[in-house]
């Protein structure tokens, strides 16, 4: 397996578990934790990214009804981020180091992908005689996610999840800077209880305030998934207790039943029924639990490790570029060939960008700092 990892471009840092496996003492008393990367977690991320690609590419095809059941698959991404984000907090780093590490990992290559999408859009509008003024504003605001708050579109529809990720890591970094790192589990529980109360109780005059909170802090919309990741982390490394399991059950319940909140940014139930959403949320939670506890080792193979290695790039570039610019060029093909060709082409593009831009960029930034 080590040869597989090396062959797919995993660095020594990755193999030692620096990114998703804790390698330093906990901030709370606990049993020692081995510095070991959870390969099932990486492969889960790769599989999830690939499924999201299939969901987006199936729109307007005969395959849409089947792949639409995964419309809420981003929840699995958020569970992973909750788990990984809390891993980084466990060593009690200084807030500036935490912010810097997350910024370097997420933002520079995101800027590359936004710029690539912008250039394609710009070229298209120029050749069709369309004004590019609004596009320029959208591009500049997309770089900082301010487009969301200004009511402007994301250049690629998947970027909304990056906004959520940035808000999550900003929240954890802020708690660290305030010296509240040890209180994250309790603060997260308070947020879950807030979601529970605003779901069950009539809000009356507070309804407008609640919707504004969801609008301007959309992390709260999907907080149950992020908090579940944090709880999975505590259960794995610190052990279970009644309170922790009850909080996980509550997070799962809110991920299912507070789905109306998602209308603010990701209206899942316009694509799938409540029943399907409940079943798939159960699948995501169970799959994640099994993956971090090494109960499904068969998901670790060359194909899933490959997908894991390109997952970030594939997720960022597939939707707008694939559907907007590649699909029209192959629309003359039969539908099955279009679907396969579109998917494979984006995998190839992601592979090339990962190896020619993302990894060299990360290495250059790390060496420079």
TrEMBL record:
Domain of life from the UniProt record: Bacteria
Pfam families for this protein: Acyl_transf_3
GO BP: polysaccharide biosynthetic process
Residue span(s) of domain Acyltransferase: 39-354
Transmembrane residue ranges: 66-89, 109-137, 157-180, 187-204, 216-233, 245-262, 268-292, 299-317, 337-357
Gene Ontology, cellular component aspect: membrane
Keywords: Acyltransferase, Membrane, Transferase, Transmembrane, Transmembrane helix
InterPro entries xref list: Acyl_transf_3_dom, Acyltransferase_3
Keyword rRNA-binding: no
One Gene Ontology molecular-function label: acyltransferase activity, transferring groups other than amino-acyl groups
Keyword check for Transmembrane helix: yes
PANTHER family with a match to the protein in the record: ACETYLTRANSFERASE, ACYL_TRANSF_3 DOMAIN-CONTAINING PROTEIN
Designated name of the protein: Acyltransferase family protein
Naturally occurring in which organism (per UniProt): Nibribacter ruber
């Amino acid at each position: 397996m080590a040869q597989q990892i090396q062959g797919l471009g995993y660095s020594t840092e990755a193999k030692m578990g620096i990114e998703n496996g804790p390698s330093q003492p906990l901030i709370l008393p606990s049993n020692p934790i081995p510095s070991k990367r959870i390969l099932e977690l990486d492969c889960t991320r790769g599989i999830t990214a690939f499924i999201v690609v299939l969901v987006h590419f199936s729109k307007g095809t005969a395959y849409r009804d089947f792949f639409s059941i995964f419309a809420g698959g981003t929840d699995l991404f958020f569970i992973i981020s909750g788990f990984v984000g809390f891993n980084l907090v466990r060593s009690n780093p200084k807030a500036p180091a935490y912010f810097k590490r997350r910024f370097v990992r997420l933002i520079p290559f995101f800027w590359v992908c936004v710029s690539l999408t912008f250039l394609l859009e710009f070229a298209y509008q120029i050749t069709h005689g369309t004004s590019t003024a609004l596009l320029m504003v959208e591009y500049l605001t997309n770089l900082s996610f301010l487009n969301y708050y200004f009511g402007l579109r994301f250049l690629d529809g998947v970027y909304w999840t990056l906004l959520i990720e940035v808000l999550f890591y900003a929240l954890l970094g802020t708690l660290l800077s305030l010296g509240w790192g040890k209180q994250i589990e309790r603060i997260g529980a308070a947020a879950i209880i807030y979601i529970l109360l605003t779901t069950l109780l009539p809000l009356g005059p507070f309804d407008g305030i609640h919707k504004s909170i969801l609008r301007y802090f959309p992390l709260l919309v999907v907080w149950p998934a992020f908090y579940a990741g944090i709880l999975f982390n505590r259960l794995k490394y610190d052990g279970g207790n009644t309170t922790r399991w009850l909080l996980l059950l509550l997070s799962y319940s809110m991920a299912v039943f507070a789905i109306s909140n998602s209308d603010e940014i990701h209206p899942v139930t316009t694509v799938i029924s409540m029943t399907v959403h409940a079943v798939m949320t159960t699948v995501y939670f169970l799959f994640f639990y099994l993956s971090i506890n090494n109960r499904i080792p068969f998901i670790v193979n060359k194909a899933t490790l490959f997908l894991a290695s390109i997952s970030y790039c594939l997720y960022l570039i597939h939707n707008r570029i694939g559907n907007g610019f590649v699909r029209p060029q192959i629309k003359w093909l039969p539908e099955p060939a279009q679907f396969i060709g579109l998917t494979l082409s984006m995998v190839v593009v992601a592979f090339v960008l990962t190896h020619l831009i993302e990894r060299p960029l990360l290495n250059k930034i790390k060496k420079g700092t």
